[in-house]
Records
---
Amino acid sequence: MHLVLYTLKTQFKTLFWYLLVIFLPLIALGIYVQNIPYIPYFFIIGLFAFRLITENEKAYQKRIKSSVTKHLLDVTGKPPSQKQIFKYQLIQSRFRETLFFSSLFAILIISIIFDLF
């Protein structure tokens, strides 16, 4: 359970930026301005650009290693093994990928709901 909560806590900033930069403007455009052609495609391209601007998986795993090690030390009370650290890093990077692809799916669903295609 602590793994899920820790992952959600660390990925909250990414989720917040997805909501702020991608979903809220798309929903606002869907509600108020429905005559802009191909607007979902611009948001999908924006999502990919946001993904490219953020760091790649290797750099991300390297950056979170110290926080993962600290969290595991707090939870277990002993220094974590490299296998535990790698497992947590892998879970966080996979959660980040899942968040990205679920965002793509959400853009498509929002676009279908507001008939933006």
Note: The chain has one domain: 2-113.
---
Amino acid sequence: MFGESLKVAKFIKQYKKYRDAKDEISKQKTLQYIQNLLGHEGGLLIKFLQYQRGQKDELDQFEHINTKIMTGIHIDEIRQVLKSELKEERYEMIKDISTEAFPASIGQVHKANIENQSVAIKVQYPSIEKVFKEQLRLFDLLPKFTGAPLKKLGIDIYLYQKKLEEMVDRECNYLIEAKNLEQWSFFLAPLEGVSVPELKKDFLTKKVLVMNFIEGDGVSAVAKNWSPDDKKKVAFQLLDAYFKVFFENQQLQGDTNLGNFIFEKNPTKVWFIDLGQVIHFSSKFTDSIATALKRKMAKKPINALSFFENLGFDREKLLAIEARLDLIVDILFEPFLLDFSFNLNDWKYKENLELVLGEDKWFFRSAGSVDFFIFMKSFMGIKTVLEQLNVSLFFKPIVEKRIANFTEVESISQVEQKEIQHRVRPAQKLRILVTEGDIEKVKVTLPFEAIYELEDFINDDIKQKIREKNIKLKQIIHDSLKDGAKTKEIFSLDDGQKRILISMV
């Protein structure tokens, strides 16, 4: 959601040379993994570095990264890891280890057989934890590379480094993933058609994890071969489970890429197959999101500044864009506020945020907390799954059910009457009026959100006249939103015969 990836790996790669075939694999996996972890929040950092230096081409020499599909390590080396990690009698119980490997971020998975049951054996790459630690230390070299203080504008890259180190520590320890599997099995038990694989505790070590093997379809197969009804069922089950665990247990699956879900049908079922990266949130974080959602769903005002502050944002930086914070909340929550089914392929949140913030988006991004961006990164993975399935869901009741019993956070829900005009969007509708002389030809009142797609509501002949007069409609919309969308006339055009007037009312 927040731009390009920082791709710290691009910087790292210039300082390290690969030494042998095994290290080549470990390093490549490390680079790709860090790149994935940074995800959307990384966009802030690469853009910030560009801002500091002023010229993107100074970074272009770092644009190359090897993103080839990793073939993994040889099956013989996998057997050696298993022998060294497991007791001899346990190792001897493992039969028919497949030579085919499935990628697993910091290792690989092989299908095998234990006591006539198909299992998935997840094996960590040798030395990858050490490589991670070495690569993450290279964050310290970034100030030397950029020639700029990394705390200019108040952005502290080391907050991101600390969070990455914590995530790496967790994911490089399969004992923690095993605990996550047990916890999530309990969390998901009340739900129908959602589960995690069964853990084989007798075969568990820090570097080896064995679970029952799940037969089913990946996201692409579901999207291609399943019926619309079945796709909608698993989409609902996935989203319901996601928000159940977030709001009720304050956790999220951190790595929500397409390969971390398996789907069954007859009956439909969703499997969360990779819980190496589980993110924990404070109750203040989840309560604040629940409060804002509840009030927005009920069309009640919120204190948007306090909302973002409760999520860890820097209050002082947000003051520069305070009037627009309520608009930002509406954009981020849009799918969950609609009273009808919605396809996330139609969610134009990036474009809408750009219209609202323009160049001021850096105030928002630099103010943001690490937890918020990690939360958004996780949800963007779920969004990608739903986009692939290409289904329309009624999001509102799914979330409404999960937040029904939350007690509202007072700082968010208490908005004094005198503050409403300043903090909450005054305009509620968009009105388009077209007249010819004294005759009213068109008068249309649209939901306020139509402003983000205003060009779609203007006839082609009017668009042509706008272009001829070199009028920048997007800039006009952006300028009209700077004050938080107060009621006003935002655009008019008179060619002597026809007059068009667009207002926020």
Note: Residues 196 and 272 are 5 Å apart (CA to CA).
